[in-house]
């Protein structure tokens, strides 16, 4: 995997703005796969509450972690103090593998630029300079759900319900778009939280825009969260594979353990044997709330057609009656209108 550095002392943005107003041109853009570098950089615009921010100079800070096809760091607009996240990927075209990698980056950008939803991490723009692609994103200060579960343990009650519902609402948005977006790597590490515990699906490096649901894909994602049909690379897997991974992540949220249990899967061979070739499903503790257990079981059906659509799950009894959300809400720096 080629990733950009996260410890560079400073990078300068090219008239970077925030989503909401038309894209403008700049000095450099991603080269077309198989062709020479072009000179065309979109910057991004958007309004924020009370002000229109334009980032012209930004600085990379501490590493947050690694995602699909890149490393992620905090970043600072040195002119006005706006803090955001930057995903960095080194771009080369020296061989066929590099060209495929470049095409995947372009696809990720195309997907990110089209998404606008409170439960999806917000794309704020991108810059390509010096052979490195920088993707600018909303910073979720609460970190990943995976880190939170490791630090604090399993979620319970209304907090667990709100977390699962937030993931589901983001998934419904992806699955009901035209074209459909299949995430293909839903897991706790790719679920981010803001300081009010609002849930954001993130990391679209493995995602696909799907025009033909019979399309066959190569297996991608993380073994413990992969659906049986993904492990076996059966033709046509798509939204229903995301439902399985969502079920695994919801189960993980309620146990603070990997969906199949600690140490159950340690590589591709064990994943194929357990997930692909057995008739087992991830074990659900007997102590699980009956309505949640029913939700998990419906998502973790081995046959893809037996799993419900994301939109159908919104009316599941686990989410009824509607829970009054008593969390404190503050004005966000990201505008959703």
TrEMBL record:
Q: Which residues form a coiled coil?
A: none
Can the keyword Nucleotide-binding be found in this entry's annotation?
yes
Q: Where is this region: Disordered?
A: 1-47
TM spans, by residue? none
Protein residues bound to ATP:
88
Q: Name one Pfam family in it.
A: Pkinase
Low complexity compositional bias: what residue ranges? 19-38
Q: Which SMART domains match?
A: S_TKc
RNA-binding keyword on record: no
Q: Which family does it belong to?
A: Belongs to the protein kinase superfamily.
Q: What is this protein called?
A: Protein kinase domain-containing protein
Record the organism: Cladocopium goreaui
